[in-house]
Amino acid sequence: EVQLVESGGGLVQPGGSLRLSCVVSGVTFSSRAMSWVRQAPGKGLEWVSNISSGGGSTSYVDSVKGRFTISRDNAKNTLYLQMSNLKPEDTAVYYCRSRPYRGQGTQVTVSS
C-alpha cells in the first residue's frame, strides 16, 4: 500500500516559518520525482514545487520563490518543504504528491 503522510502544519503569524515533512512508503521513493501542491479555501489545487528523484533539480511557483525550499532525504524516504516569510495568502492545505498518489494533507494557516 502506498502511503504519503504529511506533518508540520499549523498556525503561524505572518513573517513566520514552518517546515513540512512527508514520509513516503510503498514505493521506491528514491526513484520518484516529488511535488508539493496546495489548496486554499474555496480554490482549486495549486502546484507549489517540484524536486527530481535525486534532489538536484527543483522548481517553484513564482509566488513562493525565494521563500520556500523543497528538499528530500532519500535515506529517510522523506520530502520536506521549508517555508519562510509566510504570508496570509499561503494559507492552504498542503499535500505531497507523486503522481498518481497524494497524501491527506496538512493545514497551514497564516494569520495574526
Folded structure, characterized:
The protein contains no helices and eleven strands. A hairpin with a 4-residue loop joins strand 7 (68-73) and strand 8 (78-83). It is mostly beta strands and 112 residues long. The protein has strands spanning 3-7, 10-12, 18-25, 34-39, 45-51, 58-60, 68-73, 78-83, 92-98, 101-102, 106-110. Helices cover 0% and strands 52% of the residues. 31% of the residues are buried. The protein is globular and about 40 Å long. The strands form two sheets. Strands 2, 4, 5, 6, 9, 10 and 11 form a seven-stranded mixed beta sheet that branches.
The helix-strand sequence is: EEEEEEEEEEE
Strand content: over 45%
Into which percent range does the helicity of residues fall?
Answer: under 10%
Mean pLDDT: 97
Residue stretches low in confidence (pLDDT < 50, at least 5 long) are none
Output the radius of gyration. Answer: 13 Å
Q: Identify the overall geometry.
A: globular
Count of β-strands = 11
Q: Total helix count?
A: 0
What can be said about the biggest beta sheet?
Answer: 7 strands, mixed
Structural class: mainly beta
End-to-end Cα distance, whole Å, is 40 Å
In short:
This protein has no helices and 11 strands. With 112 residues, it is mainly beta. The termini are far apart.
